[in-house]
């Protein structure tokens, strides 16, 4: 009658000892998993902060060796590396302005030096203006030419160099405004001194020079012609400059003051209106506003240091944030920085960190919700056997022998299932309740078995057989 007792007691002892021993280890694993989750969220936060904070790995075009573009980019890279270690510049070598513009348009570079009249890429936006070059038609002393129309049928000299092709196209554009076919004006491409000699020999009606109102191509041509002719060269006035600029947005009108290219005797001898083109540091329109603003801020605030490396940096200027030109518009991030100063720049940076914080917070909330849901499901699964054991104990009092056998089988199945549970799935409180419910169910089953035994007991007294 007590045949099931040793088995059930054995199960009871196994359950009460083994899971209890595993409980501290389960808690350690849960804490380790929680710590790992927190570390993952923190790592994700640092990664997002790193990605969204103002830093960049930027590709920038650099011109042929010895070119103006190379000297400026080299200076900018040196200053940028010292001031902003998080901005890394990868230099992309190109042959000329056309190659620089093409590299930006084809997205093989992030930054490029472009000239406003030369193959401007459609996706380019201005970061800063590097230089403003005057388009000067230099005439020999006592020249009879008074307008561009007077160059028809004559020969114009062009300074040999990296920009000779771009300057030849510039000449064609100016001639087209005056309805002069390009073939009606001859071209001679020579070095500066050779051009001056040709002017002295009256082989050239004018020399086209494109350069700043500072040491550069125009100053060199004026000086060479003055020495060769022993006279004072003139700069051809283009009173139509503003109208030309409206038709061809790559040009703009500029007033050249007296003596801009030579002091004594002064060249020009009076203020002259002519055309100008601009060299610009341009970025792709896809560049984030905060990065574009950071680059512009870096260049404009370190201009003095750039000048110490190359005098060319003295001509750097900020673009007009209100300029609505369809050619090389100002990048929105740069326009915001120029309009509102450092506060807007730092506000943009703060927005990126704010977005990063939102993402990290959301990730943490999702992790916490997932952890809470998993713990709730684990708790429900752990308490389900406890509730069933209580139900078995309550049902045992009213079952017959067959029902008792079924409850015994379910009892053993519950014990076996709980003993096979993975470590960490059942909490300490649940284990304690399970042990109590297990003993309660065992007692109820044993009590019911004892109450059913008289019906199946063998009579202990002698049996009287009456013979007839």
TrEMBL record:
TM segment ranges: 352-374
Keywords, in A-Z order: Membrane, Transmembrane, Transmembrane helix
Pfam families: NMT1_3 (PF16868)
Annotated InterPro entries: TRAP_TAXI
SUPFAM superfamilies reported in the protein's UniProt record: Periplasmic binding protein-like II
Domain of life assignment: Bacteria
Region (Disordered): 1-21
Protein name: C4-dicarboxylate ABC transporter substrate-binding protein
């Amino acid at each position: 009658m007590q045949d099931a007792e040793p088995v059930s007691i054995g199960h009871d002892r196994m359950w009460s000892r083994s899971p209890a021993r595993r409980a501290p280890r389960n808690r350690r694993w849960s804490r380790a998993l929680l710590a790992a989750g927190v570390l993952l969220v923190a790592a994700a936060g640092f990664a997002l902060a790193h990605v969204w904070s103002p830093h960049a790995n930027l590709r920038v075009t650099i011109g042929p060796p010895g070119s103006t573009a190379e000297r400026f980019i080299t200076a900018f890279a040196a200053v940028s590396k010292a001031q902003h270690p998080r901005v890394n510049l990868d230099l992309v070598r190109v042959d000329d302005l056309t190659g620089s513009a093409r590299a930006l348009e084809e997205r093989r570079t992030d930054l490029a030096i472009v000239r406003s009249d030369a193959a401007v890429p459609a996706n380019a936006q201005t970061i800063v203006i590097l230089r403003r070059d005057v388009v000067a038609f230099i005439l020999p002393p006592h020249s009879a030419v008074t307008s561009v129309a007077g160059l028809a049928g004559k020969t114009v000299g062009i300074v040999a160099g990296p920009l000779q092709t771009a300057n030849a196209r510039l000449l064609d554009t100016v001639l087209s405004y005056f309805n002069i076919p390009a073939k009606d004006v001859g071209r001679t491409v020579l070095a500066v001194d050779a051009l001056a000699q040709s002017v002295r020999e009256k082989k050239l009606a004018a020399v086209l020079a494109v350069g700043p109102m500072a040491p550069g191509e125009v100053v060199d041509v004026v000086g060479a012609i003055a020495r060769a002719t022993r006279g004072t060269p003139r700069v051809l006035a283009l009173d139509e400059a503003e109208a030309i600029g409206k038709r061809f947005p790559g040009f703009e009108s500029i007033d050249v003051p007296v003596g801009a290219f030579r002091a004594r005797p002064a060249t020009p001898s009076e203020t002259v209106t002519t055309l100008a083109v601009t060299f610009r540091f341009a970025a792709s329109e896809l560049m984030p506003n905060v990065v574009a603003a950071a680059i512009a801020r870096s260049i404009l605030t370190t201009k003095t240091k750039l000048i110490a490396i190359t005098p060319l940096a003295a001509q750097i200027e900020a673009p007009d944030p209100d300029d609505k030109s369809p050619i090389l518009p100002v990048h929105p991030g740069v326009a915001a920085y120029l309009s509102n100063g450092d506060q807007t720049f730092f506000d943009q940076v703060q927005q990126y960190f704010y977005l990063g914080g939102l993402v990290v917070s959301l990730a943490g909330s999702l992790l916490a919700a997932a952890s809470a849901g998993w713990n709730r499901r684990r708790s429900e699964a752990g308490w389900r056997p406890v509730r069933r054991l209580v139900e078995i104990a309550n049902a045992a009092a009213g079952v017959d022998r067959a029902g008792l056998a079924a409850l015994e089988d379910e009892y053993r199945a519950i014990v076996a299932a709980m003993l096979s549970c993975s470590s960490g799935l059942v909490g300490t409180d649940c284990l304690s309740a399970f042990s109590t419910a297990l003993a309660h169910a065992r007692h109820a089953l044993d009590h019911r078995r004892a109450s059913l035994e008289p019906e199946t007991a063998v009579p202990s007294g002698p049996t009287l057989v009456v013979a007839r």
